[in-house]
Amino acid sequence: MEADKRVLLQNEEVQRTISRMAHEIVEKNGGAEDIVLVGIHSGGTHLVRRIGRKIEALTGHAPAVGIVDITPYRDDIEKRSADAPRIEAPVSVDDRTVVLVDDVINTGRTIRAALEMLGHLGKPKKILVATLVDRGDRELPIRADIVGKNVQVEDSERVNVMLQESDGADMVIVAKQQQRR
Q1: Spatial distance between the Cα atoms of 80 and 60, rounded to a whole number of angstroms
Q2: Omega before 42 within 30 of 0, i.e. cis
Q3: Using CB atoms within 10 A of its CB, is residue 51 exposed (0-12), middle (13-18) or buried (19+)?
Q4: Across the 181 residues of the chain, what is the mean pLDDT of every consecutive 10-residue run?
Q5: Which residues, including other chains, have CB under 8 Å from residue 45's CB and lie 6 or more apart?
Q6: Can you give the pTM of this predicted structure?
């Protein structure tokens, strides 16, 4: 591996971490009933499905799983779409525990946008945030309730989560960001 990259998790470590996160979700909810897992596109897409399968294997109950694109709710990008959020496999969130799932949490702005979007979908009983990697360095007072791995990285570094479904391997690496010219 190149000197400007370091591996945080790979293969079985990623799988064990996802399994532990599923256990924590069930524990914090007191079971799998009334759980809605909402993956944030695109980083949380495969992760939320895996967590859903782990919860089903653990409890025998398959939680509802949805994927949302929160781009219209972002406040940190210049080009905002006027379109409604794209929701795959829409599920009712009213009076249920919603677990927002993303691969990496950093500034908190993605979660803030997802919370705003959830407010337009209904009124959850409770909202939890689950992330595979928490890299700290918040701009907003938002924290994850379920964290696979905490890591401190430099501003010049990026956390890359690769999953089998999209990248052909399970791995989390920290790499130096390319300098923009």
Answers
A1: 41
A2: yes
A3: buried
A4: 83 98 97 95 94 98 93 73 59 92 96 91 95 95 97 93 96 86 54
A5: 39, 67, 166
A6: 0.91
Q: Which of 73, 72, 140 is nearest to 106 (CA)?
A: 140
Note the pLDDT of residue 76: 75
Amino acid 179 reads Q
How many angstroms separate the Cα of 61 from the Cα of each of 3, 57, 129, 141, 154? Answer: 44, 8, 20, 33, 40
Q: Quote the pLDDT of residue 84.
A: 55
Question: Amino acid identity, residue 115?
Answer: L
- Contact, 67 vs 45, CB < 8 A? yes
CA dist 135 and 141 (Å) reads 14
What distance in Å separates the CA atoms of residue 108 and residue 150, rounded to the nearest whole number? 15
Q: What pLDDT is stored for residue 73 in this prediction?
A: 85
Kindly state the tokens that stand for 108: 């908190």
Do 39 and 52 touch, CB atoms closer than 8 A? no
- Tracing tokens 């000197």 back to the chain, one arrives at 3
Evaluate whether 64 touches 54 at the Cβ level (below 8 Å): no
* Rounded distance between C-alpha atoms, residue 56 and residue 150, angstroms: 26
Closest CA to 76 of 41, 103, 47, 113: 113
